[in-house]
Amino acid sequence: MNYKNILLELGAEGENLLGFNTPKILKEQLHLPSQKFIDEIFLQSNRNPQVLRNLAALYKHGHLANTGYLSILPIDQGIEHTAGASFSPNPLYFDPENIIKLAIEGGCNAVATTFGNLAIMARRYAHKIPFIVKINHNELLTYPTKYDQIMFGSIKDAWNLGATAIGATIYFGSENSNRQIVEVAEAFERAHELGMPCILWCYTRNNSFTKDNVNYEVAADITGQANHLGVTIQADIIKQKLPENNGGFTTINFAKSNPKMYTDLSSMHPIDLCRYQVANCYMGRIGLINSGGESKGERDLPEAIRTAIINKRAGGTGLILGRKAFQRPLKDGIEILRAIQDIYLDETISIA
Q: Its Gene Ontology molecular function terms (predicted)?
């Protein structure tokens, strides 16, 4: 996908995103993705040689191998959103083998999915693409609906089925967030002992974060702080939703903030908002991957391209895109995965 096609997909916003070069936080202050990222960042950390080896397995696989960028296929929606709701658009993915095939054919660095999906196919595919086991979920079958992440298996079980890494979600700001932080921190400690890197879905969840019909669960200041908590419990990669607004702390009037957060460190430009998220990942020492979001049909490809450009130009590490790929025919899913990967391979799209 060349530069002109990207502009056509983005429409009027294309020039604004691709031409933006006045970020509040300068790129020189960041630790940016590169071929030497693991050596430059993790060799001075407490991560053991097994963790380093498995990090390398993630970064050296797929279409983006040896670039410092990641493209991960995450499919845990069968639990998080019910299997029927998630797979009805494409029943092919009730079969876990097709999930793994999509990740392989789509050139992904890894596939992230559930204990059951990976366990049932482990001997056939664990040596063909890195597995990321998602260890906790919001099971969604309780009525009335609650929002809580609970463990679905053990770290030893993830290791036994051949996982390269584990993934977990914390709903920061939720009623049960304190318990989730403790559980996930303990799980990450054990995973690191066994040599598995840890990816944290740093989501914020609280109905009170919505005010005047604006949802500040996707505000740069609130999600940035969630990222900071995530790297504090030693996540090796942070997954976060792309920020859509800012000023959650000041609008809702909670936590603590400083006016410079909104003037000197960020603006309302999408790249600045995302860069603030990167800054909260130890200035990029821990890679930020943004999520692809729900599928909305014909707009999926341009929206995915937009997210990839924002993430890359902000200093992020890649995309973790699921529903936009698997809720469509296999060929189209592969096309959208390859399109966003091409953004990260395109040297004309530079860090702002």
A: fructose-bisphosphate aldolase activity
